[in-house]
């Protein structure tokens, strides 16, 4: 099957120039001035930017959170939402049961996703406890294409690690040359504050951020960096939300540490005022870490512009207010945490980043696609417009406008934290391995089109 995309502005992490792209059998076959080239299908990209499809390396589809609750979007609907927003690859998580072998859990998670996903997907392995067989299980997971290992320094009673366990995971990763990703919040103080607030009758949503102030993240970021640096492990900090955390990461990078930073649209564009109001107005904003004051968003935008933030991901993990978040109506500690963003991410960064003059289209590509491909071992198969790369391509119309909201979103969540936001720029076409997956807002790809991505980390990672 051959297609050609003509007359667009081709954007990579380093260049933006007019040109055409030939797609043959799911791969990019030629790039440049192809005006004399023909193909079975011709797409006119005049007035559009042509970029690598988005990669969202932090999503939680069908995430079990206990009591039979799963996050609102499953693999089929979540990947449909991803494509609708211009994202052609996602990385979800394997969260083993206590005592469950990592590879058994990986196979089980693949069985949930394979044949359901509409776009390509990879899996990170969460390590929820230490045992002596973990290094061997990590090696087998890496062989199966999952060489990145998620650790939680919060959620101590469920899936979190204590420092002794975290150190062992870092050391095993350093020896195996894997990547450790870390959710950095000090779990013990969160548990302590939650218990005290609830005992004092402070059970409304406004107490959620008060259990997790900026210092709780900043301490954990600093600790994780120090431990990873000591052991020589590569570290990726997920969903960074604080100015102090960014400062600590920037200092370690300047000193040469292998360290990567991710943030999410909600930390850039929303703030802690969202927690003031009734349960039905505020529950949708419960995520961890929580929204912060505007000084933190400002610092993160500066970090984005200065290259200190590597990746804009989403941590997509919404729960409906009705029937899910309302489990915590009388006690905020029982609210399942997480918010949406998988379909809004690119539009939000274009609107508030590129269209506002904060970043260039090249930096947009780096933040939404190429950097994640490099860090997580998918480059140059993904995140690239080079000959031989998968033809995962976004034809982006900068003039299209979107008004976000629950009534129009693909997500099955009954609410949206992006309600009322207006975006400029949207996908005109999205190609996934050469197949037209989205046309003018309509998702054409079918369940099962997506493949599992066997990732292999580059030497030195990124
Ligand atoms: O609140 C959040 N972020 N929920 C998803 C799970 C996690 O902590 O990443
Ligand atoms: Zn997450």
Structure description:
The protein is α/β, with parallel strands linked by helices. Helices cover 30% and strands 22% of the residues. Strands 1, 2, 3, 4, 5, 14, 15, 16 and 17 form a nine-stranded mixed beta sheet that branches. The structure holds N-(aminocarbonyl)-beta-alanine and zinc ion (ZN). Residues 60, 183, 287-288, 315, 317, 337-338 line the site of N-(aminocarbonyl)-beta-alanine.
Helix and strand arrangement:
Layout: E1 2-11, E2 16-24, E3 27-32, E4 41-44, E5 49-52, E6 54-56, H1 75-84, E7 87-94, H2 102-113, E8 120-126, H3 134-143, E9 148-152, H4 163-176, E10 179-183, H5 187-199, H6 207-210, H7 214-231, E11 234-237, H8 243-254, E12 259-263, H9 265-269, H10 279-282, H11 294-306, E13 311-312, H12 345-354, H13 361-375, E14 393-403, E15 422-432, E16 435-439, E17 442-443
Parallel strand pairs: 1-4, 1-5, 6-7, 7-8, 8-9, 9-10, 10-11, 11-12, 12-13
Antiparallel strand pairs: 1-2, 2-3, 5-14, 14-15, 15-16, 16-17
Helix pairs in contact: 3-4, 7-8
The chain binds N-(aminocarbonyl)-beta-alanine (URP) and zinc ion.
Gist?
It contains 13 helices and 17 strands.
Strand content: 15-25%
Radius of gyration: 21 Å
Shape descriptor reads: globular
Measured between the Cα atoms of the first and last residue, the distance is 33 Å
Task: Count the DSSP helices.
Answer: 13
In this entry the ligands are: N-(aminocarbonyl)-beta-alanine, zinc ion
Q: Could you estimate the helical fraction of the residues in percent?
A: 25-40%
- The total beta strand count reads 17
Structural class: alpha/beta
Uncertain ranges: none
Oligomer: single chain
Q: Mind describing the biggest β-sheet?
A: 9 strands, mixed
Mean pLDDT: 97
Give me the strand/helix succession. Answer: EEEEEEHEHEHEHEHHHEHEHHHEHHEEEE
């Amino acid at each position: 099957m051959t297609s050609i995309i003509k007359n667009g502005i081709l954007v990579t992490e380093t260049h933006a120039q007019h040109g055409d792209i030939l797609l043959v059998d799911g791969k990019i076959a030629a790039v440049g001035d192809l005006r004399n080239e023909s193909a079975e299908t011709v797409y006119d990209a005049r007035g559009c930017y042509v970029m690598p499809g988005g990669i969202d390396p932090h999503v939680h589809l069908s995430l079990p959170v206990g009591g039979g609750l799963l996050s609102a979007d499953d693999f089929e609907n979540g990947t449909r939402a991803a494509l609708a927003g211009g994202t052609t690859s996602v990385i979800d998580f394997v969260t083993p049961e206590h005592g469950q072998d990592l590879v058994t859990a990986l196979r089980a998670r693949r069985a949930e996703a394979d044949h359901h996903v509409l776009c390509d997907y990879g899996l990170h392995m969460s390590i929820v406890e230490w045992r002596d067989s973990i290094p061997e299980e990590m090696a087998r997971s890496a062989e199966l294409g999952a060489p990145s290992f998620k650790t939680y320094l919060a959620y101590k009673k469920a899936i979190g690690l204590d420092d002794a366990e975290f150190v062992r995971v870092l050391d095993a990763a350093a020896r195996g040359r894997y990547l450790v990703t870390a959710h950095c919040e000090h779990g013990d103080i969160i548990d302590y504050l939650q218990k005290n607030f609830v005992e004092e009758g402070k059970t409304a949503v406004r107490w959620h951020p008060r259990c997790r102030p900026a210092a709780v993240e900043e301490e954990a970021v600093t600790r994780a960096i120090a431990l990873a640096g000591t052991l020589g492990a590569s570290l990726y900090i997920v969903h960074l939300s604080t100015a102090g955390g960014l400062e600590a990461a920037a200092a370690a990078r300047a000193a040469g540490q292998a360290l990567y930073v991710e943030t999410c649209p909600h930390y850039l564009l929303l703030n802690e005022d969202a927690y003031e109001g009734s349960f039905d107005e505020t529950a949708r904003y419960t995520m961890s870490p929580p929204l912060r004051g505007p000084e933190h968003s400002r610092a993160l935008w500066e970090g984005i512009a200065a290259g200190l933030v590597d990746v804009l991901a989403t941590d997509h993990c919404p729960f409906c207010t009705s029937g899910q978040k309302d489990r915590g109506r009388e006690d905020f500690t029982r609210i399942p945490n997480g918010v949406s963003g998988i379909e809004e991410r690119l539009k939000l960064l274009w609107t508030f980043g590129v269209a506002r003059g904060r970043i260039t289209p090249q930096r947009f590509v780096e933040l939404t696609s190429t950097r994640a491909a490099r860090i997580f071992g998918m480059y140059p198969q993904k995140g690239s417009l080079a000959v031989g790369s998968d033809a995962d391509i976004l034809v982006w119309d900068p003039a299209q406008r979107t008004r976000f909201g629950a009534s129009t979103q693909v997500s099955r969540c009954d609410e949206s934290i992006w309600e009322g936001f207006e975006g400029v720029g949207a996908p005109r076409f999205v190609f996934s391995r050469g197949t037209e997956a989205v046309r003018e807002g309509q998702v054409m790809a079918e369940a099962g089109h997506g493949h599992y991505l066997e990732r292999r980390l580059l030497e030195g990672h990124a």
